[in-house]
Specification:
The chain has a domain at about 30-90. It is built from 4 helices and 2 strands; from the N terminus they run αβαβαα. Helices cover about 40% and strands about 10% of the residues. It has helices at about 10-20, 50-60, 75, 80-90; strands at about 35-40, 60-65. By secondary structure, the protein is of the alpha+beta class. The model has no long low-confidence stretch (mean pLDDT about 75).
Length: about 90
């Protein structure tokens, strides 16, 4: 996606590919009792169907965003409605 942007050795790439870095499934014990996930329904990287199952299993609050993919989520979270959602979640 960003050729040449990430430079590291092969061992770290293999670890990253294994899913043991930044993978909630591998870090279940780190999940607290208060979590919010905002995800685009059209996200091809993190499928919404898998995310819904994951959130249901662990009691995580999920807010899918219609007509939004993986890379354009940053444009969505600045919208007043979503900002309020995040603000309310943090303060409650």
């Amino acid at each position: 996606m960003f050729p040449g942007a990430y430079r590291t050795d092969e061992n770290l790439w293999n670890k990253l590919l294994s899913g043991k870095i930044i993978n909630p499934k591998s870090n279940i014990s780190l999940i607290s009792n208060k979590n919010l996930i905002i995800s685009g329904e059209k996200d091809a990287t993190i499928k919404i169907t898998q995310l819904k199952k994951y959130c249901k299993k662990f009691g995580i609050e999920l807010h899918p965003i219609k007509n939004c993919g993986h890379l354009n989520i940053k444009n969505v979270i600045t919208q007043p409605k979503i900002y309020k959602l995040i603000f309310d979640f943090i303060n409650n």
